[in-house]
């Protein structure tokens, strides 16, 4: 399946969800909003299951962990500091928020759920292998359903013209630049095993692990799919830590490090630790990076350098 077809399917699904949403009955709307927080875990189970089967053909699967942690850490820190330097030059204003232990524990609970979903998927995959069963399964279609549901959710999001302020748009721009610069640094460390375009592509997931793992597997290989999955899972963890450690002092930088997750998983933390004033930053940055991530991944994977 070509990258153009994959991207086309993603945008068709999110558009369908957006335009169909106003015509849904009240009961269907409630159902969508009820299942959406859990659907990502279902998708993560399916991704881990599919990758476990595919990773059978990789000589050393344990080798994917170090590059995943390296890329996740450097891209998170890179996005944070590029955004910090940018706003230090143009706007020193900072709104401080209170840190809630309860919210932090809830965030850790969500991370644990993600790891549990991964473990369940891997366990199912290993069980299928042990029983010597052959199941044809493609989690891409689950991803398309998930994207459709996100489109429905976006239809009920209240947008404001002030959200398109050039200062707000600098947050996702800093995330992109910081991720690219980090990828270039990572290339000098990983150049013996990965090409520059592969490392650049791995830096473009912005924490959306349920999408990147599938997309890399479809467009490249199971090995890179596994690295992408772990990279974006760890990137979300690093973003949560930065949010609670430094979000009260450098809110926009923390949002930039959160990447695509600032629109959903880390949004509550933005409101609590950065302040309500920065919720539009998080929503717009997360939306832009969520739309760009699959496009940028496909673009870099299609290049050869």
From TrEMBL:
<feature type="transmembrane region" description="Helical">
    <location>
        <begin position="168"/>
        <end position="189"/>
    </location>
</feature>
<dbReference type="GO" id="GO:0005886">
    <property type="term" value="C:plasma membrane"/>
</dbReference>
<keyword id="KW-1133">Transmembrane helix</keyword>
<feature type="transmembrane region" description="Helical">
    <location>
        <begin position="69"/>
        <end position="90"/>
    </location>
</feature>
<feature type="transmembrane region" description="Helical">
    <location>
        <begin position="278"/>
        <end position="301"/>
    </location>
</feature>
<feature type="transmembrane region" description="Helical">
    <location>
        <begin position="31"/>
        <end position="49"/>
    </location>
</feature>
<feature type="transmembrane region" description="Helical">
    <location>
        <begin position="135"/>
        <end position="156"/>
    </location>
</feature>
<dbReference type="GO" id="GO:0015661">
    <property type="term" value="F:L-lysine efflux transmembrane transporter activity"/>
</dbReference>
<protein>
    <recommendedName>
        <fullName>Lysine exporter LysO family protein</fullName>
    </recommendedName>
</protein>
<dbReference type="Pfam" id="PF03956">
    <property type="entry name" value="Lys_export"/>
</dbReference>
<feature type="transmembrane region" description="Helical">
    <location>
        <begin position="111"/>
        <end position="129"/>
    </location>
</feature>
<keyword id="KW-0812">Transmembrane</keyword>
<feature type="transmembrane region" description="Helical">
    <location>
        <begin position="6"/>
        <end position="24"/>
    </location>
</feature>
<dbReference type="InterPro" id="IPR005642">
    <property type="entry name" value="LysO"/>
</dbReference>
<keyword id="KW-0472">Membrane</keyword>
């Amino acid at each position: 399946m070509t990258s153009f077809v994959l991207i086309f399917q993603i945008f068709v699904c999110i558009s369908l969800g957006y335009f169909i949403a106003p015509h849904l009955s009240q009961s269907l709307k409630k159902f969508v909003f009820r299942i959406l927080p859990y659907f990502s875990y279902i998708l993560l189970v399916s991704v881990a299951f599919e990758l476990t089967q595919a990773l059978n053909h990789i000589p050393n699967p344990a080798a994917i962990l170090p590059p995943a942690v390296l890329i996740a850490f450097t891209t998170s820190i890179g996005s944070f500091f590029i955004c910090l330097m940018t706003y230090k030059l143009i706007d020193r204003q900072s709104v401080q928020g209170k840190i809630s232990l309860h919210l932090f524990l809830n965030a850790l609970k969500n991370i644990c759920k993600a790891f549990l979903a991964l473990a369940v998927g891997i366990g199912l995959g290993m069980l299928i292998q042990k029983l010597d069963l052959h199941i044809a399964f493609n989690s891409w279609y689950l991803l398309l359903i998930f994207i459709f549901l996100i489109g429905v959710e976006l239809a009920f999001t209240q947008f404001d013209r002030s959200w398109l302020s050039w200062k707000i748009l600098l947050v996702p721009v800093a995330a992109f630049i910081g991720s690219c610069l980090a990828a270039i640094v990572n290339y000098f460390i990983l150049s013996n095993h990965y090409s520059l375009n592969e490392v650049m592509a791995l830096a473009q997931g912005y924490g959306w692990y349920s999408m990147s793992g599938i997309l890399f597997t479809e467009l490249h290989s199971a090995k890179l799919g596994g690295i992408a999955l772990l990279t974006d899972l760890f990137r979300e963890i690093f973003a949560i830590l930065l949010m609670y450690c430094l979000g009260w002092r450098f809110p926009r930088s923390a949002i930039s490090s959160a990447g695509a997750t600032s629109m959903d998983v880390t949004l509550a933390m933005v409101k609590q630790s950065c302040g309500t004033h920065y919720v539009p930053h998080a929503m717009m940055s997360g939306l832009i990076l969520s739309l760009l991530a699959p496009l940028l991944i496909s673009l870099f994977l299609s290049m050869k350098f």
